[in-house]
């Protein structure tokens, strides 16, 4: 067999391994956990020995549910689940919770499923053959809609009437108080939309059936 070809093949295989499995400075090996197209779960098998730690990385969304199950030949083999951005704080610890977990996720991002042997078993360089099953189900949580700003409560007609900007003015017979003689009062009308549309509107004065707002505020009765 050609020696150069053998060397190139060995280098290619080594590169393929590095691309899917990375060992960090702290000795933790990182492996991506990929689901088949259209699948909501994945199962991986492997071997853990001594002080080896393996992190499986999987992306998920807030509001989804994650299920993790570990079957192993070593009773000291467990897993922890770490949320996005965490290197040591876990949302689930297998050594106290067991080797099956289901929980709802609180954040978007990459979750870590960390496999390890308990320290006593690691010191004895024990081996664990494991099968890890991970499922992610459910829809991502929808973002809460922000409440719309409250619309201005003062209608245009009332505002214009209060400012003395009327669409029509005139005089009308009136009395300033009950029992007083009738006289002429000046009035002004502010119509809805500045026109004669039939929309009712609130005002500081009187509103007629056509949607017009009238006001006599600040006006004295005209002499008869």
Report on this structure.
The chain is of the alpha+beta class. The chain has 2 domains: 30-137, Jelly Rolls (Sandwich), CATH 2.60.120; 156-222, no CATH class. 15% of the residues lie in helices and 40% in strands. It has 4 helices and 15 strands. It has helices spanning 3-20, 94-97, 119-123, 156-162; strands at residues 22-23, 28-32, 41-49, 53-60, 65-72, 77-82, 92-93, 100-104, 109-117, 127-137, 168-174, 183-191, 206-207, 212-215, 221-222. The strands form 3 sheets. Strands 1-2-4-9-6-7 form a 6-stranded mixed sheet. Strands 11, 12, 13, 14 and 15 form a 5-stranded antiparallel sheet that branches. A hairpin with a 4-residue loop joins strand 13 (206-207) and strand 14. Residues 6-19, 148-154 and 197-221 have low confidence and may be disordered.
What is the approximate shape? rod-shaped
Radius of gyration: 39 Å
Our count of domains comes out at 2
**Alpha-carbon distance between the termini?**
125 Å
Q: Which stretches of 5+ consecutive residues score pLDDT under 50? A: 6-19, 148-154, 197-221
The helix fraction, in percent, is 10-25%
Biggest sheet overview = 6 strands, mixed
Q: Assign the CATH architecture of the largest domain.
A: Sandwich
Q: How do the helices and strands follow one another from N- to C-terminus?
A: HEEEEEEEHEEHEHEEEEE
Task: State mean pLDDT (0 to 100 scale).
Answer: 76
For this structure, the CATH topology of the largest domain is Jelly Rolls
SS strand fraction? 35-45%
CATH class designation of the largest domain: Mainly Beta
Give the number of DSSP strands. 15
What's the tally of helices? 4
Order the strands across the largest sheet as they lie in space. 1-2-4-9-6-7
């Amino acid at each position: 067999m050609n020696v150069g070809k053998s060397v190139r093949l060995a280098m290619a295989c080594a590169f393929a391994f590095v691309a899917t499995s990375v060992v960090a400075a702290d000795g933790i090996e990182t492996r991506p956990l990929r689901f088949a197209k259209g699948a909501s779960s994945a199962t991986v098998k492997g071997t853990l020995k001594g002080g080896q730690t393996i992190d499986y990385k999987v992306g998920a969304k807030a509001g989804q549910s994650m299920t993790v199950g570990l079957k192993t030949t070593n009773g000291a083999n467990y897993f922890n689940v770490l949320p996005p951005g965490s290197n040591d704080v876990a949302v689930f610890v297998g050594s106290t919770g067991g080797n099956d977990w289901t929980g709802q996720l609180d954040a978007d991002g990459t979750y870590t499923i960390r496999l390890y042997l308990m320290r006593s078993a690691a010191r004895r360089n024990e081996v664990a053959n494991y099968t890890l099953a991970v499922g992610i189900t459910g829809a991502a949580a929808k973002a809460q809609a922000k409440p719309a700003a409250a619309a201005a409560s003062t209608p245009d007609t009332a505002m214009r009437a209060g400012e003395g900007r009327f669409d029509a003015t005139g005089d009308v017979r009136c009395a300033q108080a009950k029992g007083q003689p009738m006289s002429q009062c000046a009035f002004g009308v502010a119509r809805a939309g500045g026109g004669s549309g039939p929309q009712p509107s609130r005002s500081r004065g009187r509103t007629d059936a056509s949607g017009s707002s009238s006001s006599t505020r600040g006006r004295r009765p005209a002499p008869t």
